[in-house]
Design brief:
Two copies of one chain form a homodimer.
Chain A (H helix, E strand, L loop, with lengths): L4 E8 L10 H16 L8 E5 L3 H4 L5 H9 L5 E6 L4 H14 L5 E9 L5 H9 L4 H5 L4 H15 L4 H15 L13 H6 L2 E3 L2 E2 L8 E10 L7 E10 L14 H14 L8 E3 L5 H10 L8 H7 L15 H5 L3 H17 L11 E8 L4 E8 L3
Parallel strand pairs in A: 2-3, 2-4, 9-10
Antiparallel strand pairs in A: 1-7, 1-8, 4-7, 5-6, 8-11, 10-11
């Protein structure tokens, strides 16, 4: 049924370290851009779904969707907010896709957004730290430290050089420099990354995404209304082993593998059909691990692809053409929707300086350290 | 399509002023009870949806659904959390119903829960206050003050006595005294209510729901698997005018009217078909206003029904047989699911001392001061 849901509009705010406006305004700006793009009046919306992780803690507010629906003038719409930590955006998209697939809405607006600049480091660290297993959290293991452990294991097991991680960072910064919506518009070299401060050995500053403010939005519609639009071939998800310590292998991200398998099955597509991918690169090593979990590369092979430029804009499989979380930025609840906005622009041929040749795109948005993952496949007639 | 979704299991924790256990444990207890009731192993769940308003602010944690899914052993399930302020529970239910209706899940667990005792008064007041329009919030208008204004207008316009509000409180306390899961097991008289401290004139302490800890859960399944179970005939929602100041009439709760109309239409039922109702009585006056919005009574007529005992357990339309928010308690994200648990128990004839004769039940869960509302209709073959 999901194959009958289309994306008819897309838009986003620029991502930044401090937007200087309230979360409500970020959501409204992205929503208005997506509605304008779809040529749809807010009053004609059946449903509004907001993806946000922690406005209660970061902004001291709740019920973002009700305020947004009112400010847009989507009078009488069905509305709610979906949270799935750092994958809240993609989960809100899934909720909207299912609403349309169930016949509960003919048109739905999905808006992901987060304002992280409002939170103190203590608040942000506390809430973000809580999204992993509570014992691991209690022992002081953070997301960067999990990523550092995985990166260390990856480099050792496959005898890979640090430069393969730095290559991911340099590629995504190069892509971000072509994206006017990206938080970082600066190209870096692998040498810059190698000389940046250590965060969690072997990961350095340029291996880690920033904290960000921003929002992104898409409009969904039942297929009969928009036959030439971008089609949602699949939007699937899965939880992974919650405690990282209970995983058989630190280099496996089971949630991504499972969500990917489900999405490929639902879409009736495989890795060979995918022309462009948006991968959850909160840390450079995650881009490699996720590409392997999804089957684009065998275990221990993605790093060579990064070094060889296979995942660059002009490579065989362009990955994160918009800059990824690394360079576009990572406003938690916005990211999953921003990935889909980038795919929509790419699939329509509207990605300007970073356009790749594509008919099928895939996005993976990950919650925590693989605690949950959402995988979507979008497509246009080529 | 919604008529093919069934509730195959229901369970909840006792509601209390301080549960003394973490929010994760409340959710797990309710979930386990619902799964046991359904005779379903957690490993067989396709989806887990948690309804919670503000764990980020109240408990400093996010991603409740991922921790819950892990602790239950629902390996690989699709999971997320839905927030709709005080209607988060019913919105999570709607999300689950649509997942099953869309064919994205054959079985889904919906768990609503909140732990409010962990929040300081300052934190709770701040976050709960944020769910109304931001200008009204900035001016210092709170939910109790909105309810006080509405109650004052109601009593004046219809020349109704305060005792009609107190009658709602006394009825719901009487029902709560028959419900072992209720926070308040104490009967009160209308005189007790009239003598309780003023909160927002004319509303007194006994006109207001308490703050609470608790959780409730239901298991959903596609109809083919459970033909004799309780059927979800409809689960519909609508936002209302966000700013109360912009409403044409302070005594109208448009979100409830609209959600109710949609639910009756989707269910192909009307008020005359409803045998029992769970109404969002965060304040006594709301029970009256919502019964009128839903069409059970004309404007200004519900108070007579309350005085005449029509909405008592042995009345023509038993309302809030489980004690309502007033006496069962109101752990924000739990309430919407607890209403449905009560309906399931009533429809199955398992409500013991508070059993009413019923085949069709309706529940309304309201966000904020009518900023959003969710209306569900459940049914069994009589």
């Amino acid at each position: 049924m999901q194959s009958h849901v289309c994306v008819t509009g897309a838009g986003m705010t620029a991502f930044s370290g401090d937007a200087g406006v309230p979360i409500h305004e970020l959501l409204e700006t992205a929503a208005t851009r997506a509605l304008d793009d779809a040529g749809l009046a807010a009053a004609d919306l059946d449903a509004v779904h907001v993806g946000n992780m922690a406005a209660e803690a970061f902004d001291g507010v709740s019920g973002l969707h009700n305020a947004l629906t009112a400010s847009l003038g989507a009078h009488g719409a069905r509305a709610d907010r979906v949270e799935n930590t750092s994958a809240s955006g993609a989960s809100a998209f899934q909720r909207g896709v299912q609403a349309v697939a169930a016949g509960a809405a003919d048109t739905a607006l999905v808006v992901g957004g987060e304002r992280m600049s409002t939170a103190s480091t203590e608040t942000a660290t506390g809430v973000i730290g809580s999204i992993v297993h509570d014992r691991e959290h209690a022992y002081g293991v953070t997301l960067p430290s999990f990523a550092g452990l995985a990166a260390d294991a990856y480099l050792r097991r496959y005898d890979a050089p640090y430069e393969s991680l730095a290559a991911v960072a340099a590629k995504n910064h190069a892509n971000g420099a072509r994206n006017p919506y990206a938080q970082f518009q600066k190209r870096i070299t692998t040498g810059d990354a190698a000389e940046s401060p250590l965060v969690a050995d072997p990961l350095r500053l340029y291996d880690c995404c920033p904290t960000s403010d921003g929002a992104a939005a898409v409009v969904l519609a039942a297929a009969d209304d928009a036959d030439d639009a971008v089609r949602v071939r699949a939007c699937e998800s899965a939880v992974g082993t919650h405690a990282v310590a209970e995983r058989e292998d630190l280099l496996r991200v089971e949630s991504v593998a499972r969500a990917g398998e489900r999405a490929f099955a639902a879409a009736d597509r495989d890795t060979g059909d995918v022309d462009v991918a948006c991968i959850h690169d909160a840390f450079t090593v995650l881009e490699l691990l996720e590409l392997e979990e999804l089957g684009f590369y065998g275990a221990g092979e993605a790093y060579r692809a990064a070094l060889d430029g296979e995942t660059a804009l002009d490579g065989a499989l362009p990955v994160n053409p918009g800059g990824g979380l690394k360079a576009r930025g990572h406003p938690l609840g916005a990211t999953g929707v921003a990935q889909l906005v980038e795919l929509v622009w790419q699939l329509r041929g509207e990605a300007d300086d970073r356009q790749v040749d594509c008919g099928t795109g895939l996005a993976v948005n990950v919650a925590g350290f693989g605690n949950n993952a959402v995988c979507s496949v979008l497509e246009v007639a080529e």
